[in-house]
């Protein structure tokens, strides 16, 4: 039982980290950024490239190396997120929501097959592998690396939450989420704030990508698709646009999958998971922590 | 979920293909009228999850085509290989098969993923085009009883028998089967489970199905471990196989692990990690590495393509030779005549042994062997003879 919970929490923290980016972007410009999962994939490949460049320099001290690579990959994916918004989404900001949604799907394809052109279709194996000795905690096998990865995930989530609640930039984001036009009139540079949101969300997804690469070892150009959908689901469970909700949704999704597999078998896992979600959303359509908002349109 | 996206891709591809197909249909109707090169088609995965395998098969087939052409072709006509990407996906594979049919091929020598090969059978059957399938080996392929379908790889049932022999030899008592829910993988797992349930041998400890394309299989691994097996048999492909081996070892499982022929690739060891993959067994048809008399062939392959041959290079090479033999024996590229010629084939020399088709159009002898991971490679462990 404790092993099931631990497995669920570990996977769930990845879902949560990626879900945050979905939630942030949706919260601020009401866009479901379907390319977000592919930014996770870009993070994994970015980290792979950085590791290749740094090569022998940081080969031995693996955990420190991971942190360095993590930060570089976050900067890279963050910058890419800004670029993506500037190229693919900003020109369409006044367009109907459906057009921009389709653009997001197109961006997703473009990133996937762009990476395929550069890195090839074969899976790559991370040169830096973490994962090692395990300890026994209440009957569950836990490795220090898992603890460290969950620690990093939570540190990033908490840092982001503080940034949004305590700083003036964070306040500007919340203001735009409420009413972009009024924010503009109040002297907020809306474009810059939106760029910042994309930077932060993409950097978090990139971090998750590097962590997944280093932990699981295998990366490929389609790896972002499944986790993108899962993270989107997590964001919806938690109440899309709500940050603690994204984390909670991620953890819950991880736990549901873990228990579904154990109780009903692997082939029934997704059936079980999504049946529970449908039930949950029919009771609370806005998600666990979502607030009921009156539709402005 | 993924299928919706693929549907979009397939629709776009189909649209693009129908444009190109028109152009080719006019120019190359030469196979039928008995002049010009004979085209042989091949659907293999060049993209997608199994894209590592496609080039091995394409090169193997191309090598045979080169040799036939160097010897003056078939009845003086050159052979041309036309390859289409099936992406290990049913919709893409059907589109690819349609494209090949429209370019008037005499035979098909492709087929890697059984799940993607199955829906292409009727496409070729409608035009009476013989399919000599080199790699895909789900029993479902021949259970359709289509006259044009021939397997030159052992079937899932034969692979299950090989696995069973090895469980007995290794003294396993409780075997857990893990599949990935694809046609190929479920077929082997089903056949193995049926054999395990018969009295006498080892017991079936448990069966687990995983969803392909994910990274975290800890929940599935947990389900395997709680069924307390002393032998785990993975019947899917190498990408997930590598992850599952690694996660099984991390979760503390120390018993033997075996994988099916879809997992035999160096990437399996890389993904699992060299330490974790040591000693992993595999049920596999003969590969160039495990054949004693193939060094000349390997040298030819290296010379032609600048790379080592891989899984199913030999089978693809053989498939082209079988197709050429059928055209020669039939004296024409007429599908029905070729099918009769294939059925009449007797002791044709293949890498895996002499080929005579059974009434079901499968190999009369399976030719499965057991490989074992040593270092970074699969090496021959036991030939099960």
UniProtKB/TrEMBL annotation, chain A:
Subcellular localization: Cell membrane
UniProt xrefs under Pfam families: BPD_transp_2
Annotated GO biological process: D-alanine transmembrane transport; L-alanine transport; L-isoleucine import across plasma membrane
InterPro entries: ABC_transp_permease, BCAA_transport_permease
Entry annotated with the keyword Transmembrane: yes
Keyword Cell membrane part of the UniProt annotation: yes
Top-rank lineage group of the source organism: Bacteria
Membrane topology value: Multi-pass membrane protein
Molecular function in Gene Ontology: L-isoleucine transmembrane transporter activity; L-leucine transmembrane transporter activity; L-phenylalanine transmembrane transporter activity; L-valine transmembrane transporter activity
PANTHER family: BRANCHED-CHAIN AMINO ACID TRANSPORT SYSTEM PERMEASE PROTEIN LIVH (PTHR11795), HIGH-AFFINITY BRANCHED-CHAIN AMINO ACID TRANSPORT SYSTEM PERMEASE PROTEIN LIVH (PTHR11795:SF371)
Family as reported in the entry's similarity comment: Belongs to the binding-protein-dependent transport system permease family. LivHM subfamily.
The name this protein goes by in its record: Branched-chain amino acid transport system permease protein
Source lineage: Bacteria, Bacillati, Actinomycetota, Actinomycetes, Propionibacteriales
TrEMBL record, chain B:
All residue ranges annotated as the Leucine-binding protein domain in the record: 37-374
Keywords: Amino-acid transport, Signal, Transport
InterPro entries found in the cross-reference section: Leu-bd, Leu_Ile_Val-bd, Peripla_BP_I
Signal peptide: 1-21
Keyword field contains Transit peptide: no
BP GO annotations: amino acid transport
Domain of life of the source: Bacteria
Keyword NADP: no
Similarity-based family: Belongs to the leucine-binding protein family.
Record-given protein name: Branched-chain amino acid transport system substrate-binding protein
């Amino acid at each position: 039982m404790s092993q099931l919970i631990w497995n669920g929490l570990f996977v769930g923290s990845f879902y949560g980290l990626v879900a945050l980016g979905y939630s942030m972007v949706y919260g601020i410009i009401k866009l479901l950024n379907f390319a977000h999962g592919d930014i996770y994939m870009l993070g994994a490949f970015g980290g792979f490239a950085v590791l290749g460049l740094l090569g022998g320099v940081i080969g031995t001290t693996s955990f420190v190396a991971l942190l360095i690579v993590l930060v570089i990959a976050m900067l890279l994916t963050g910058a890419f997120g800004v670029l993506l918004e500037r190229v693919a989404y900003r020109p369409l900001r006044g367009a109907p929501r459906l057009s921009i949604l389709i653009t997001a799907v197109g961006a997703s394809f473009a990133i996937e097959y762009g990476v395929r052109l550069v890195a090839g279709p074969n899976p790559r194996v991370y040169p830096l592998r973490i994962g090692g000795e395990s300890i026994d905690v209440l009957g569950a096998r836990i490795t220090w690396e898992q603890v460290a990865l969950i620690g990093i995930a939570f540190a990033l989530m908490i840092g982001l939450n503080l940034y949004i609640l305590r700083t003036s930039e964070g306040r500007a984001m919340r203001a735009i989420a409420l009413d972009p036009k009024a924010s503009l009139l109040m002297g907020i540079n809306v474009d810059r704030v939106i760029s910042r949101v994309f930077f932060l969300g993409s950097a978090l997804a990139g971090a998750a990508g590097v962590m997944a690469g280093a932990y699981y070892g295998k990366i490929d150009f389609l790896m972002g698709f499944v986790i993108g959908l899962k993270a989107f689901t997590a964001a919806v469970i938690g109440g899309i646009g709500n940050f603690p909700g994204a984390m909670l949704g991620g953890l819950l999704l991880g736990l549901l999958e873990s228990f579904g597999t154990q109780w009903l078998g692997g082939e029934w896992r997704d059936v079980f998971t999504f049946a529970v979600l449908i039930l949950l959303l029919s009771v609370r359509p806005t998600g666990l922590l979502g607030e009921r908002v009156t539709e402005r349109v | 979920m993924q299928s919706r996206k693929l549907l979009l891709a397939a629709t776009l591809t189909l649209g693009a293909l129908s444009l190109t197909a028109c152009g080719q249909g006019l120019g190359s109707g030469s196979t039928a009228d008995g002049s010009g090169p004979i085209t042989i088609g091949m659907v293999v995965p060049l993209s997608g999850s199994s894209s590592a395998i496609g080039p091995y098969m394409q090169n193997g087939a191309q090598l045979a085509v080169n040799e036939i052409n160097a010897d003056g072709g078939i009845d003086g006509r050159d052979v041309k290989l036309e390859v289409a990407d099936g992406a290990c996906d049913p919709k893409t594979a059907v589109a690819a098969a349609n494209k090949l049919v429209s370019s008037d091929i005499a035979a098909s020598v492709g087929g890697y993923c059984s799940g993607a090969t199955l829906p292409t059978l009727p496409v070729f059957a409608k035009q009476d085009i013989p399919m000599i399938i080199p790699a895909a080996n789900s029993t479902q392929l021949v259970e359709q009883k289509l006259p044009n379908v021939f397997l030159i790889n052992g079937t899932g049932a034969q692979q299950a028998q090989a696995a069973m022999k090895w469980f007995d030899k290794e003294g396993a008592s409780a075997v857990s089967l893990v599949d990935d829910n694809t046609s190929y993988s479920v077929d082997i797992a089903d056949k193995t489970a049926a054999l395990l349930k018969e009295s006498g041998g080892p017991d079936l400890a448990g069966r687990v199905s995983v969803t392909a394309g994910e990274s975290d299989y800890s929940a599935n691994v947990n389900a395997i471990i709680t069924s307390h097996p002393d032998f785990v048999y993975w019947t899917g492909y190498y990408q997930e196989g590598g992850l599952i081996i690694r996660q099984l070892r991390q979760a503390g499982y120390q018993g033997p692990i075996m994988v099916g022929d879809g997992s035999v690739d160096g990437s399996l060891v890389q993904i699992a990690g060299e330490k974790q993959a040591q000693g992993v067994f595999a049920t596999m048809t003969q590969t160039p590495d495990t054949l004693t008399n193939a060094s000349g062939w390997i040298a030819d392959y290296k010379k032609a393509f600048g790379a080592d041959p891989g899984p199913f290079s030999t089978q693809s090479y053989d498939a082209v030779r079988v197709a050429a033999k059928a055209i020669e024996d039939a004296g024409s590229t007429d599908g029905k005549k070729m099918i009769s010629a294939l059925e009449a084939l007797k002791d044709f020399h293949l890498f895996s042994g002499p080929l005579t088709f059974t009434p079901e159009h499968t190999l009369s002898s399976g030719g499965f062997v057991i490989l074992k991971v040593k270092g970074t490679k699969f090496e021959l462990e036991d030939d099960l003879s």
